[in-house]
Amino acid sequence: MLPPGGRQPTSFPFKAMKTIARISLTVFVLFSASALFAAEDAPGYTDTPLIPGSPWKVHDQARPQPPKVEPGRGDLRRQPPSDAVVLFDGTNLDRWKGADDAKKRDGIKDGAFDILATGQLSTIEEFGDCQLHLEWMTPETPEDRMNWGNSGVFLLGCIEIQVLESHDSFIYADGNAGAIYGQYPPLVNPARRPGQWQSFDIIFTAPKIENGKQVEPAYLTLFYNGVLVQNHSEILGKAAHRDVPGVLNVDKGPVILQQHGSAVKFRNIWVRPINGE
Ligand code: MG
Fold first, then answer.
1. Containing domain of residue 172, as a range?
2. What is the spatial distance between Cα 186 and Cα 90, in angstroms, rounded to a whole number?
């Protein structure tokens, strides 16, 4: 149907159509090739199982990276409230268990400790529902790119909030700093540059366990450098690498700081048990 006063368009020349088709095909081939190369370069996996309840696979190469945001200020050097359990005030690691007491002592310098020097640490006390504040810094100089600044904060001793140099997001989405490892990428990426202090403020609700089985899941909210990156995320289970989360059957456990071959520093760590825990 032509509009009033409209004219029948002239038929498109066949030769021009062929040229357009050829150009389109070339563009398509080039685009596909670049997408293929990009996928090959992208960190992550294509052969891992699906995360339960998610369209994404564990460490999915295709999962979108969280958008970057510049954090504001004011999240660092936060003073513990009067009812907090101070886990590290810059002077000693008496509330932590490590493999080697001498390393634990010698790893402290200038009010911070280096997890590569101290070795992996685990709180002596166990926690369930809690608010946890801690500050960390990845090494300034590049290490192995996939492992630069790798550490982690484990709640209940088995749920990992990833610590990693993520300013340039060189890992699969669910492995970035602020991810619940292997489950949820951070909502956004507010990473500071390596060699700068960063903070986590965690609000954790432990699962309800009855007769050794989970009857209500755990939930985790996380502010990373003062920015909300996990919003009441339902914990799917214990942290796993390249596998679905493991069965979670504990409602209390230590906070563990992971030694993963990188000289990540920590300072100003305090926790507030909540909900009568
Ligand atoms: Mg880690």
1. 42-273
2. 28
Residue 120 CA to ligand 1 center (angstroms) comes to: 12
| 202: CATH | 2.60.120.560
Q: What is the pLDDT of residue 219?
A: 98
Ligand 1 geometric centre to CA of 119 (Å) = 14
Name 275's Cβ contacts closer than 8 Å, sequence gap at least 6: 128, 129, 205
Cα of 166 to ligand 1 centre, how many Å?
12
Which pLDDT tens digit goes with each residue over 90-104?
A: 999 999 999 899 999
Q: Is 155 a member of any domain?
A: yes
| Distance from residue 164's CA to the centre of ligand 1 (Å) | 7
Give the tens place of pLDDT for each residue, 19-28. 544 545 444 4
Domain count for the chain, please give it.
Answer: 1
Given pLDDT bands bounded at 50, 70 and 90, which one contains residue 40? low
Report every protein residue that has its C-beta within 5 angstroms of ion ligand 1. Answer: 150, 152
- Does some domain include residue 36? no
44's tokens: 């992550």
Examine residue 1 and state whether it is found in any structural domain, yes or no. Answer: no
**8-21: average pLDDT:** 45
Of the candidates 239, 244, 231, 230, the residue with the CA atom closest to the CA atom of residue 260: 239
141 Cα: distance to centroid of ligand 1 (angstroms): 18
